[in-house]
Automatic annotation (TrEMBL), chain A:
Annotated localization: Cell membrane
Membrane topology: Multi-pass membrane protein
Protein name stated in the entry: ABC transporter permease
The organism's taxonomic lineage, starting at the top: Bacteria, Pseudomonadati, Bacteroidota, Flavobacteriia, Flavobacteriales
Membrane-spanning intervals of the chain: 21-41, 285-304, 331-358, 378-405, 426-446, 678-701, 722-746, 766-787
Domain MacB-like periplasmic core: 20-241
Organism name: Flavivirga aquimarina
PANTHER family: ABC-TYPE MACROLIDE FAMILY EXPORT SYSTEM PERMEASE COMPONENT 2, MEMBRANE COMPONENT OF TRANSPORTER-RELATED
Main localization of the protein described in the UniProt heading: membrane
From TrEMBL, chain B:
Record flagged with keyword Nucleotide-binding: yes
Record-stated family: Belongs to the ABC transporter superfamily.
Keyword flag Endoplasmic reticulum: no
UniProt entry keywords in alphabetical sequence: ATP-binding, Nucleotide-binding, Translocase, Transport
CDD domains: ABC_MJ0796_LolCDE_FtsE (cd03255)
PANTHER family: CELL DIVISION ATP-BINDING PROTEIN FTSE, LIPOPROTEIN-RELEASING SYSTEM ATP-BINDING PROTEIN LOLD
Name assigned to this protein: ABC transporter ATP-binding protein
SMART domains: AAA (SM00382)
GO molecular function: ATP binding
UniProt xrefs under PROSITE patterns: ABC_TRANSPORTER_1, ABC_TRANSPORTER_2
UniProt domain ABC transporter: residue ranges: 2-225
Pfam families referenced in this protein's UniProt entry, alphabetically: ABC_tran
Record organism: Flavivirga aquimarina
Length: 801, 225
């Protein structure tokens, strides 16, 4: 019985090759897109699944108010650790203080690597469930120990045992390898953590780290915790929320709120707005989930449209079947088995497409998704998906077809009424509404990226490189290196900075100045720079001057950016002082004299206003980067070769590592660019599927109207008149879709743009391009069939048989 | 008005070649009413299609109104056709989605007649064909005879010099058929040249001259006047 249904279904497929091709390819492409999006979403949702204790691990976060703006982040002060350990110990299974992930230079014999790692307290490996391959889990107990990831151990020691070997860190200290742990897989936090060093060791490395031990105002550290079994994140948060506020009188004015940020939310929900959790990547998950469903919907619409359209041709078949006693149910069954056959075939092709494009998709989305062949869940979902799609796309045509009145059909009186094509038209409008909305959205995303890229950065980022400072040796040699680099001809200028040009690593407050409003809580981006900072970067002086070797007092000078002058409300800033507001006169730092104002340079997000920044003089010891302005007379490759030689002569044991500043800056766009490329791909797919459907409908309509076209041609219609006749209806549908999609997309993209303070305005040009594009695409799709019908010889269609 | 000489037409289908017209020659004078008869498949429709410039011939000569049109391209032929020739088909070939009025209006649209002028002309011809009261109906709502009257109305609305009718009564009963033949006779009296294919001796008697065909050739010609 089933066999019979499928046999007939199969014959029907073969009989209508074009129709079957359009249906199957459209559905297959739609399904492939949906599967890929589904895999991507699963991957996103499974982030951090490697950690078994995902639901009891949290990071301690802090919110603080500055002039009414609440900022939230993971940076916390050291004394918080002691108060939690002493007064709230029963809430926690583990408390782990941690540094920021930071690259260090590890050397064993002649082999060296420069790689990322953390300093953590002893129970870190236990809390993170590190799988120990060699050595002990307690590997951070001794101050001079180091734990290595499998990858870094392999690079340093090859296949030799690692434990017990001694590694030189940053050319300074000898640490003994105590353990090797399995790499933490991609798609998890800490996946780039190539080594762990003891917190004990880390905090003694620099005086400011040691001094931070009782400084509630120095928010420079991270803390991870695992809560006890008998409590919840919320319960713990409610207990500790005011600990800092109560512990420090000075800090209370910022209303610091300490809370637990569960590991569950780290990846997908890490945006905070005014102290309240407000989404994050989860929005993209939703966005692409919806796009995936839409694409599937588009493919299903094709199926429904083509089947119902074709149904009129099958009216006779239905009439005959009914008149020989077919039950309506049997007919529905027959049509459903056809749709099942198509859906199953499409699914098979879809898997082929996914396999073919998964690599490309992974590159596009920066993922390492593998096809889940052995995942039962996937196949169950796939099965459900096949059934739903088959029913979704097959039931309407099945019910519609089987409802034909057999008598009317057989008498030949079956005529498609004027409105029988209305549902079809609505579906086509739906398809094009989605496609056009996607076109508009993609254009807006691309415009926003371009707009921000075109934003002046305030310095010349081309021909600028940064060399990270890897040891104290670098710091002491900065002046020597500058002289040598310039003398070598590979660079024309050099300056050190305490943070990269493309980021702010330090923020300061606690200053006072002439005209400072009472109660004003300043928050200033703070960078230490050397003499030739302005010249090296090519920043623009607006007032005053840059640091100069001619003025010894410049060592206590400071340069402000334009925004800082406005922010601080300083009139005639040059020559004024910014003073330390510390009440303790002993600890007070000397006042800083404003010597210059530079135009804003974008160090942080290209989508946000430039932060108020001050650039203080680097009195030695704060440099994190050598910034070099390459010699414009030579090629970049030549310059780099010369610079590398100079570098190697001075630091023979250190690998030469550098970054192009413009590339670093370009990275700021990567997440938006990824969205843009995904959006482009899905838009293209949506258009492709919609056009496939339109093509099918157009050929159906042309076929249905062959006689009419023949008659009109005999009566003198020209080819262009016939082409217009056949295309007009579709153009109307697309115009309606444009009218629906435009305000909708305008609204949605307006919302999306809200998250960028530096944003493009959605202009009419976007709509004009989308409109023009949609019409051209429609015309091309429809015209093929229309022109084919129009140039056909009419006598064929008019012959009476 | 029409002079064809040695007209040839072949159809090639899967290695089988059919000779539809085999060196056919005759001429038709202005104002004549000619009937073409012959068994099914002898090439009558093929001939009419070539005379109506809907199809190419494979050889011979075709002079229309003193012009050799055999080598004319599609566009030129379409232009001659729409200004000079009206068609009536056995199966009416009305457009289902258009009303009677709209069907009859079509040839005027394609010859670029202005809207007001079109309305006047269509009304005139519908009056003449006595189907004015049906102008807002759709073809399916009419009887066969009425449909053919609409088709004739459509064929003549442009005042063509020549009407080509392919078995115009083939789908009609005798009384409806006679009505259509009366219409054609009337049009012929007003000066329109008519070439009509028919199977019916009765209908053929309305013409001035009968051309009898067999296997793509003229076998006999009888004049009725
Ligand atoms: N498009 C075609 N392709 C192949 N053969 C054709 C075609 N049209 C007509 N014929 C053949 O040409 C011959 C003449 O056809 P036709 O002119 O329609 O005859 P009639 O109208 O006299 O019945 C027939 O043998 C027919 O089969
Ligand atoms: Mg015939």
């Amino acid at each position: 019985m089933f066999r019979n249904y499928f046999k007939i279904a199969w014959r029907n497929l073969l009989k209508n090759k074009v129709y079957s091709f359009i249906n199957i390819s459209g559905l297959a492409v739609g399904m492939a897109a949906t599967i890929m999006i589904g895999l991507w979403i699963t991957d996103e949702l499974n982030y951090n699944d490697h950690f078994k204790k995902k639901d009891v691990i949290a990071q301690v976060y802090q919110s603080q108010a500055m002039n009414g703006d609440v900022g939230t982040g993971p940076a916390i002060p050291r004394p918080l650790e002691f108060i939690l350990r002493e007064e709230y110990a029963d809430n926690f299974k583990h408390i782990v203080m941690s540094s920021w992930e930071q690259p260090r230079y590890l050397k064993y014999g002649e082999t060296n690597i420069y790689t990322q790692g953390n300093a953590m307290q002893e129970s870190g490996p236990e809390m993170l469930d590190l799988k120990i391959i060699e050595g002990i889990k307690d590997g951070l107990k001794e101050k001079n120990s180091i734990m290595l990831s499998e990858t870094s151990a392999k690079t340093l020691f090859g296949s030799d045992a690692a434990v017990g070997k001694i590694i030189k860190v940053n050319n300074l200290d000898d640490l003994i390898v105590t353990a090797v742990y399995n790499d933490i897989p991609e798609n998890n936090s800490f996946n780039e953590m190539d080594y762990l060093i003891p917190w004990k060791y880390y905090v003694t490395k620099q005086p400011w780290l040691e001094n931070a031990i009782d400084r509630w105002g120095n928010n420079s550290f991270q803390m991870f915790v695992q809560i006890n079994e008998n409590t919840t994140m919320e319960a713990v948060t409610s207990k500790i929320i005011d600990v800092k506020k109560n512990a420090s009188v000075d800090e209370a004015e910022f209303n610091p709120q300490i809370f637990l940020f569960p590991m569950q939310d780290w990846y997908l929900r890490n945006d905070f707005e005014n102290g309240v959790q407000s989404g994050g990547r989860i929005e993209n998950v939703w966005l692409f989930g919806i796009i995936g469903l839409f694409i599937l919907l588009l493919a299903c619409i094709n199926f429904i449209n083509l089947s119902t359209a074709r149904s009129e041709k099958r009216a006779t078949e239905v009439g005959i079947r009914k008149s020989i006693g077919s039950q309506r149910g049997q007919l529905i069954f027959q049509f459903l088995s056809e749709s099942f056959l198509i859906v199953i075939l499409s699914f098979v092709f879809a898997i082929g497409i996914v396999l073919l494009f998964l690599n490309g998709f992974n590159n596009l989305a920066s993922k390492v998704i593998v096809f889940p062949w052995t995942n039962i869940q996937f196949w169950l979902v796939a099965l459900a998906f096949i059934i739903v799609t088959a029913f979704l796309s097959g039931s309407y045509p099945a019910i519609y077809l089987s409802s034909f009145n057999p008598v009317a059909v057989l008498k030949g009186a079956f005529k498609s009424g004027r409105y029988s094509s209305l549902p079809r038209k609505i579906l086509v409008v739906t398809q094009f509404t989605v496609s056009i909305a996607l076109i508009i959205a993609t254009l807006v995303v691309m415009n926003q990226i371009q707009f921000s890229k075109d934003r002046p950065v305030g310095y010349d980022k081309e021909g600028l490189i940064q060399i990270p400072v890897m040891s104290n040796e670098f710091i002491g040699k900065a002046e020597v290196m500058r002289t040598q680099f310039i003398a070598s001809g590979g660079a024309i200028e050099m300056a050190t900075t305490s943070s990269p040009t493309t980021n702010v690593w330090s923020n300061r407050s606690g200053y006072t100045w002439e005209g400072k409003p009472v109660g004003f809580q300043e928050d200033l981006a703070y960078t230490n720079v050397s003499y030739e900072f302005v010249k090296t970067l090519g920043a623009k002086i607006i007032q005053g001057r840059g640091f100069s070797r001619d003025f010894p007092s410049d060592s206590l000078g400071v340069i402000l950016n334009k925004t800082a002058v406005e922010y601080m409300g300083i009139k005639d800033p040059i020559g004024k002082y910014i003073r330390d507001a510390d009440t303790d006169v002993e600890n007070r730092e000397p006042p800083l004299k404003i010597i210059g104002v530079i135009d804003d340079i974008i160090m942080q997000s290209p989508y946000s206003p430039v932060k108020q920044s001050i650039y203080a003089f680097d009195n030695g010891g704060t440099a994190s980067f050598y910034n070099l302005r390459l010699n414009p007379e030579k090629s970049t490759a030549k310059n780099l070769e010369i610079i590398k030689n100079v570098f190697k002569k001075n630091f023979p044991d250190t690998p030469f590592d550098f970054q192009f500043v413009d590339e670093e800056y370009g990275r700021k766009f990567s997440s938006e660019e990824r969205i843009a490329s995904l959006a482009r791909v899905f838009t293209a797919l949506a258009i492709f599927i919609s056009c496939l459907g339109l093509f099918g409908l157009a050929s159906f309509v042309a076929e249905q109207r062959t006689k009419e076209i023949g008659v009109r041609k005999v009566l003198g219609a020209s080819i262009s008149q016939l082409w217009l006749l056949l295309s007009k209806d579709f153009i109307t549908l697309v115009v309606i879709a444009l009218l629906i999609a435009s305000p909708f997309a305008y609204y949605i993209m307006g919302q999306w743009l809200q998250k960028f303070s530096y944003r493009v305005s959605v202009g009419w040009d976007v709509f004009a391009i989308a409109c023009f594009g949609a019409l051209i695409i429609t015309l091309i799709t429809v015209s093929f069939q229309a022109i084919k019908a129009a140039i056909a010889n009419p006598i064929k269609s008019l012959r009476t048989e | 008005m029409i002079k064809i000489t040695d007209l040839e037409k072949y159809y090639k289908t899967e290695e089988l070649q059919t000779i539809a017209l085999n060196k056919l020659s005759f001429d038709v004078k202005k104002g004549e009413f000619v009937a073409i008869m012959g068994p099914s498949g002898c090439g009558k429709s093929t001939l009419l299609n070539i005379l109506g410039m809907l199809d190419d011939s494979d050889g011979g000569s075709f002079i229309f109104n003193g012009e050799e049109v055999i080598h004319y391209n599609e566009r030129k032929r379409a232009n001659i056709r729409k200004h000079n020739i009206g068609f009536v088909f056995q199966s009416f070939n009305l457009i289902d989605q258009l009303t009677v009025f709209e069907n009859v209006e079509l040839p005027l649209i394609y010859t670029g007649v202005k809207k007001a002028e079109r309305k006047k002309k269509v009304h005139e011809v519908l009056e003449k064909m006595q189907i004015m009261h049906r102008r807002k109906h759709f073809p399916q709502q009419l009887s066969g005879g009425q449909q053919q009257r609409v088709a004739v109305a459509r064929a003549v609305v442009n005042n063509p010099k020549l009407i080509l009718a392919d078995e115009p009564t083939g789908n009609l009963d005798s009384s409806n058929g006679n009505e259509v033949m009366d219409l054609l006779t009337e049009l012929n009296k007003q000066g329109t040249t008519i070439i009509m294919v028919t199977h019916s001796e009765h209908d053929a008697k309305f013409s001035h001259r009968i051309i009898r065909m067999l296997d793509g050739q003229k076998v006999i010609e009888n004049s009725l006047i």
